[in-house]
Amino acid sequence: MDDTTDRIEQHLTTLFRRVQKIHVFTSHGEFALDRSGYGLLCRIADEGPQRLGSFATAFGLDPSTITRQVQALERAGLAERQPDPDDRRAALLSLTDEGRTAVLETRAHRRRRLEQVLADWSPEDRRDFARLVAQFNESTDRLISAEHAADS
Q: For the whole model, what pTM was predicted?
């Protein structure tokens, strides 16, 4: 490993801590979502209702962990299971009206905070950062998919 990789790893560690702080500080109002619940709700909002197994695959978590997280969202009235029209034996998790509101309000609040963080960045730096974060996420997904395929 070279010095650049070392620096990236150190900065990622700091970034993860900062992101956690942003999440804690942006849980507000009547929607105090934990990080995992927020992630599940955002995935549904972005991609539509899904089977629980798709969450386990997407987040690299054990299905029992996803089940517990989903149950918490259902108890809070933010998500609900409905029969899968393609396979009545399966269920799809979808947002309730309250869940949709929670995602919209929490995202708006988080994005306002992000605007504050990036206030002194140039538009070019913002575009570069967005591109590089997306590239990093795509590379990470490819690696995880390859490792998952090798384990199967």
A: 0.78
